[in-house]
Amino acid sequence: MLHLTLRQLEIFTAVAHSGSTVAAAPVVALSQSATSAALQQLESGLGTPLFERAGRGLVLNDAGRALLPQALALLEQARAIEQAFGAQGAGLPVRLRVAASTTIGSYVLPRVLAALARSHPQVSVDLHIGNTREVAEAVQVLQADLGLIEGASHWPGLETAPWLRDELVLVAAPDDPLAQAARQRPLGVVALRGARWLLREQGSGTREMVEHALLPRLHQLASAATLGSSEAIAHCVAQGLGISCLSRVLVQPLLDSGALVLLPTVLPRMWRHFSLLQRAGRQPSPALTAFVQACREHG
To answer: Class of the 92-164+274-298 domain?
Structure first.
């Protein structure tokens, strides 16, 4: 006779991720008291406490740390069973949870979602948009079935597959002094090193790739401002607040309208990959396979 349930494991992982039964309760759609009771039942069934109290929060002890990866794997298998049978059974609806970094979610995924809706109308997608770190963490704790990120993943237990190639370009407002100077000759290292740079926040895939591409050559990026949105950076650049290095996918409409111009430089062209991100060893459901196929065909 089993002494634990999948629901108890779901509550356990929510508490482990949130740090308290109060924070976990809305995630699992229970009251705080019901969440606490379910956790106590799990600990009683296993015959060991799983958390230690730290102030007002809960921290995994050694038994909890040992249980967490096994609980996550069991929950993932249970969700895969649900999705597999849902996708193959009489057109029953299936709902995927996808997390995407900002540029991908805003500029690439809309056409993918439209193609998926045409080919697999029974598959719905709940899309969460965040920076690359937030996307990776969502996949890691099973809050997302698949992640789509800009650049590489450095998180354990996750595997990436390259998807699309994206160019990073330097842009400025047409009347920016650097744009005017670049009309005479490509900008050199000294000019770029002294520029006012508008950058994404730490944890952004764009920020990581920009630093990886530019710092070895410029040695410093004088940040005039840090913004949590690439779209906001593009529009601030258009207002003459500085220059930036952004995805061509994102800035192309502003280049076409004349609000931004490309900055010719002595630097080589810069490229990165958009990648698909999932938990290592995961067997994709038919619905998830259909989504990945739509990404590859329509991205």
So the answer is: alpha beta
Domain boundaries, the chain: 6-78, 92-164+274-298, 166-271
Classify each residue of 22-32 as buried b or exposed e, where b means 16 or more C-beta atoms within 10 Å of its C-beta: ebbbebbebee
Residue 283 tokens read as 């067997």
Q: How many CB atoms lie within 10 A of CB 262?
A: 14
Radius of gyration of the chain (CA): 23
Q: Do domains 6-78 and 166-271 have the same CATH topology?
A: no
Q: What digits encode the pLDDT tens for the residues 111-162?
A: 999 999 999 998 999 999 998 889 999 998 889 999 999 877 778 889 989 9
Q: Where are the beta strands (DSSP E) in the chain?
A: 51-54, 57-60, 94-101, 123-130, 146-150, 158-172, 197-200, 223-227, 244-247, 261-262, 270-279
* Model pLDDT, residue 90: 44
6-18 and 32-46 helices, crossing angle to 10°:
110
What tokens appear for 31 in the block?
């009251």
Other beta carbons less than 10 A from residue 56's beta carbon: 8
CA–CA dist 215, 58 (Å, integer): 40
Give CA separation, 11 vs 60, 73, 176, in Å. Answer: 14, 14, 54
Rounded alpha-carbon distances, angstroms, from residue 161 to 91, 137, 151, 218, 232:
29, 17, 11, 30, 29
Lookup: tokens for 245: 């290095």
Q: Is 84 helix (H, G, I), strand (E, B) or coil?
A: helix
Helix, strand or coil, per DSSP, at residue 100: strand
**Residue range 6-78, CATH number:** 1.10.10.10
The model's pTM is 0.66
Domain 166-271 sits in CATH at 3.40.190.10
